[in-house]
Amino acid sequence: MAQFERELIGDRVRDKIAASKQKGMWMGGEPPLGYRVQDRKLAIVDSEAEILRSIFRRYAELGSVGLLRDELEAQSVKSRSWTSASGRLSGGKPFAPRSRRANMATIRL
Fold first, then answer.
1. Global pTM?
2. Cα(58)–Cα(23) distance, rounded to whole angstroms?
3. Exposure of 104 by Cβ count < 10 A (0-12 exposed, 13-18 middle, 19+ buried)?
């Protein structure tokens, strides 16, 4: 009986999260570069979005993540930095090829 209750609660939580996402609500975590959370939805940060657009344009021209990384490092372009609720500082580091590939696969110009 207890296992059934646990499964039922899990199903309800999954359904609630899916319904919230369907409504376009941000479900937590640090938003991707170029966005901020406003009223539980993602809003575009124009200054960061322009940086991303220029990175994508340059990647399309170069066709190489490695060459792009070298250019970004030479220009001292870094990821967004933020402070967590617990006070831990994160981000503010050079773009890593892996994270850049993930961004390029998921963000449209």
1. 0.61
2. 34
3. middle
